[in-house]
């Protein structure tokens, strides 16, 4: 008897309250492929957004430290470049662990779909008080196999147009820009070496998470493949 070749396709689960996670991952993958950046208004799963927002409200001022620029030994605080405060996210709390799990799943998805070879992820909460900003910068420098993909998520319910604090992404030649309102649950991803960006001065407290996926430095820093 001829065997029918029917494959049972497993559709992604669409649990209400958890958002459409696989769909968002796929949107990000497609956008990265076609444009190199992805903006998803209210894209983060609602439960996760609420948990992160609750956690960032509960962090005391003491847990935030002035943000620096540069890497490792070059790291220094420069209030002319950025004036926000940050708090690194660890997996110690349930909420921090859920966020890292969500990002790790995105990492696995992008590695499967785009073969990006993303290897690790680090992220911090950021608090921009009224007047705080982050001047135009790149998150990574070409040729230094460091940060590959930047990920930003916003935790600001009811953000109004005149609250400022937009992310400005320089998306093309001629200083073409895209302005992103830091609204509740909006998720942005972009290739770290490709897109300069800045944060315009916020007119009220602005909360976000900024994170970076890295490739494995030890292997990608090797210029010549072994003979
Ligand atoms: O919060 C944002 O919109 C972007 C922050 C940023 O560019 C950074 O932390 O490197
Ligand atoms: Fe940045």
UniProtKB/TrEMBL annotation:
Keywords: Dioxygenase, Iron, Metal-binding, Oxidoreductase, Vitamin C. Residues 114-215 form the Fe2OG dioxygenase domain. Pfam families: 2OG-FeII_Oxy_3 (PF13640). Transmembrane segments: none annotated. Its cofactor is L-ascorbate. One of its GO terms (molecular function) is peptidyl-proline dioxygenase activity. InterPro entries: HIF_prolyl_hydroxylases (IPR051559), Oxoglu/Fe-dep_dioxygenase_dom (IPR005123), Pro_4_hyd_alph (IPR006620), Pro_4_hyd_alph_FE2OG_OXY (IPR044862). GO terms for biological process: cellular response to hypoxia. Signal peptide: none annotated. This is SM-20-related protein. It comes from Marinobacter zhejiangensis. The lineage of its organism: Bacteria, Pseudomonadati, Pseudomonadota, Gammaproteobacteria, Pseudomonadales.
